[in-house]
Structure formats: structure tokens, C-alpha cells
Design goal:
With 159 residues, this protein is mostly beta strands. A 14-stranded antiparallel β-sheet has the order 1-2-3-4-5-6-7-8-9-10-11-12-13-14, with no helix packed on it. The N and C termini lie far apart (61 Å). It contains no helices and 14 strands. The protein has strands at 5-13, 16-25, 30-36, 39-47, 53-59, 62-70, 80-86, 89-97, 104-110, 113-121, 127-131, 136-140, 146-152, 155-158.
């Protein structure tokens, strides 16, 4: 057990956390789920001391596979993030939703950056969709007018 570990209850093998169990740390964080050779491995829920929660798959202690990160209660600056994780970060098909701004993204990410095909949704009807280095933006105004903008290499290319 680590110095800051408060309590572990669950299955053990050869003196290591192995199987299903829950570990609580002195800083208030905790994890409940599957363990393999003393590492989070399989399905579980990880709650950080600041209230950020992850529920999903782990491999060798890292977020890996499908999961969802929930921002801390009252923290509207971080998005709700759901999708594929690789090496602890979002990579693959994802969905992001920022409660503070109302902005949402559905599509591909690589190393926490929009990549490949996706769609950004903005309050008021603006949509930016397509391959992310050359997307098309569509803005629909409340009076029915609309604007279409083409992008190339992240710069406005035409209207």
C-alpha cells in the first residue's frame, strides 16, 4: 500500500490488489473496480479529490478503451467527455459537451485534439463540420438567413 492510501477492501493475489476492490486515499479520492497486479485494469470508477469522475475502462492504471469523464459538480469550464481513450487521453470517436458555453463536439480526436471528421455545434445555430483541417461552417440565424464558410488549413477560404 502507498503512503497516502487510507483503506483498501477487496480481492488480493500474492499481496497485490487483484480482482474487484475499492481503494480510498487520504486526499479524498477513491477508485472502485477491477484490479490486475496492483493496477487499475478493467472496468471501474475513479473519483479525484477535486470531484472529477471517470467511469470506464482501464489498462495498466490508465484510461484506455471506452469511458466518460464527468466534470466536478459546479465546474462548468470542463466538458463532459465521453468516447475512446488511449494512453489516458481522448483518442478516437468522442463526444464533448461544455455546459458553460453550450458548445458541443462529436467526432474524431487524436491526443485530445479534434482530428479527422467531426462536427462542432455552437449556441445560436452555428455548425462547423467536416474534416477538421478543411471543414465547412454553417451558421443559421434566427431570421432564417444562413452563411456557409469553407476553411482550408484552419483558415477561412471562402464564404
Amino acid at each position: 500500500m502507498s503512503k497516502q492510501e487510507k483503506i483498501y477492501s477487496g480481492e488480493m493475489k500474492d499481496g497485490l490488489r487483484h480482482g474487484f476492490g475499492r481503494c480510498d486515499w487520504s486526499d479524498g479520492s477513491w477508485y472502485a473496480g477491477e484490479w490486475l497486479n496492483d493496477k487499475k485494469h478493467g472496468y471501474g470508477m475513479d473519483v479525484k479529490a477535486n470531484g472529477v469522475r471517470y467511469m470506464g475502462e482501464f489498462v495498466n492504471g490508465m484510461y484506455e478503451g471506452f469511458g466518460t469523464v464527468y466534470p466536478a459538480s459546479g465546474d462548468s469550464s470542463l466538458p463532459l467527455a465521453s468516447g475512446e481513450f488511449k494512453n489516458g487521453g481522448l483518442s478516437g470517436l468522442v463526444l464533448l459537451k461544455y455546459s458553460e458555453t453550450g458548445v458541443a463536439y462529436a467526432g474524431q480526436m487524436k491526443d485530445m485534439e479534434d482530428f479527422g471528421f467531426g462536427c462542432w455545434y455552437y449556441p445560436g445555430g452555428k455548425i462547423r463540420a467536416g474534416e477538421m483541417t478543411n471543414p465547412v461552417s454553417l451558421e443559421i440565424f434566427s431570421d432564417g438567413r444562413h452563411s456557409v464558410v469553407h476553411w482550408k488549413n484552419c483558415l477561412q477560404h471562402g464564404d
